[in-house]
Amino acid sequence: MRVFIPRESTSSETRVALIPESVKKLNDLGIAVAVERGAGLKSYYSDADYESAGAELVDDRAAALSSADLVARVRKPPPEEIASLKSGAMHISFLDPFNESALIESFRAAGVTAVSMEMIPRTTLAQKMDALSSQANLAGYFAVLKAAERLNRVLPMMMTPAGTIAPSRVFVIGVGVAGLQAIATAKRLGARVEAFDTRPVVEEQVKSLGAKFIKIDLGDTGQTDQGYAKELTPEQIKKQQAGMAKVCAQSDIVITTAKLFGRPAPKIVTEEMVAGMKFGSVIVDLAVESGGNVVGSRLDEEVQIENGPRIIGIGALEDRVAVHSSQMFSANIFNFIEHFWDAESKQINRDLSDEILGGCVITDGGAVVHERFKSD
Ligand code: NAD
User: In which band, very low, low, confident or very high, does the pLDDT at 220 lie, cut at 50, 70 and 90?
Assistant: First the structure.
């Protein structure tokens, strides 16, 4: 079997799907790896590193795409490249399948087995392949650094002969993987941290990190069997906004991470809440790629509100720590391949009755096989 890692096609993408360490591990399984020359440069993995790990460096991308048994990348492929893949090949990447029906159709028509990293089930067994989590963790970390750098204040309390500086206040809205890491990072930097999530189970986790959980009684909320938040009713959203306005007004940094799997993110921070925030404060909207939690946040922009906060809406903040985000993503890809590798047939098992494969394979054998994406 031959795996191919092309350079990412989105110019802003800094990650690479497989790092040299994973190349070596795949080689050890008997799997050959080809890497497009320069694929790792933006994440500081050199061609020489790949070569010494055992990868073949490739200049002819088109030929490599059409001959590979498995293509892995971080972002969805450019549509025109799908038809050139070998029929029966496997393609693994984030696919944004809820918004990419044309891409799914191209995979189906090409006879490719398309694996969507977003759809890896959230089970204990699949945790090692869960790229949404591995990337969200780093995005949560970097959101705090980004906010701290733009804040023009310090985060910890400082008692000095020149006077005492009070700790900055950080409010994290949405305490999933990214939110928990944002809380932990802000605490490490000495900030006073508060947090809110609609899933009540989160309260204990927030407290265990030394932060304060903001209680807002929204009535019945809860979570899905995959651990994702359920969508709130319009009345619940209003209650939540009222409960949060005061906390936002007192905060120096607000970090929003609230997402709804497969649907646009809920708008939580309203125009009035933004207007009520302090001059010089900072909002980081980590949900900006799926529509944003903050009214006025714009993808890949920083918006300075007059006499108010600066709203940072940079998508995929994990890109900014590309060495480690690539390392984590690469481990997810390697774990997937290793888990399904059949050493006897020297092929990847494609038994769709397997819970993980059934969850993340979208097209296979010329058909859309995933229930959620069948067009009937
Ligand atoms: P996510 O990125 O979908 O959402 C981030 C957070 O936003 C979630 O905690 C969600 O409850 C919250 N949220 C949604 N709407 C909100 C609103 N209106 N106001 C405030 N908060 C709101 O979630 P995630 O980070 O991917 O993870 C969700 C849960 O799944 C977490 O408990 C996580 O620990 C769990 N998880 C489990 C596994 C596993 O078991 N293998 C793997 C990953 C995550």
Answer: confident
The answer, yes or no, to whether any atom of ligand 1 lies below 6 A from the CB of 259, is: yes
Q: Which fold has domain 140-320?
A: Rossmann fold (3.40.50)
228 is catalytic: yes
Edge-first strand order for the sheet with 282-285 is: 212-213, 192-196, 169-173, 253-256, 282-285, 310-312, 302-304
Short-list 169, 170, 191, CA closest to 179: 170
Query: Is 50 a catalytic site residue?
Result: no
- Residues 342-365 pLDDT 10s: 999 999 999 999 999 999 999 999
Write out pLDDT tens, residues 318-329.
999 999 999 999
Say what the pTM is. 0.94
Pocket test for ligand 1, best of 177, 196, 356 (most atoms within 8 A of CB): 177
CATH no., domain 2-129+321-373: 3.40.50.720
Q: Give the residue range(s) of CATH 3.40.50.720 domains in the chain.
A: 2-129+321-373, 140-320
Active site residue 133: yes
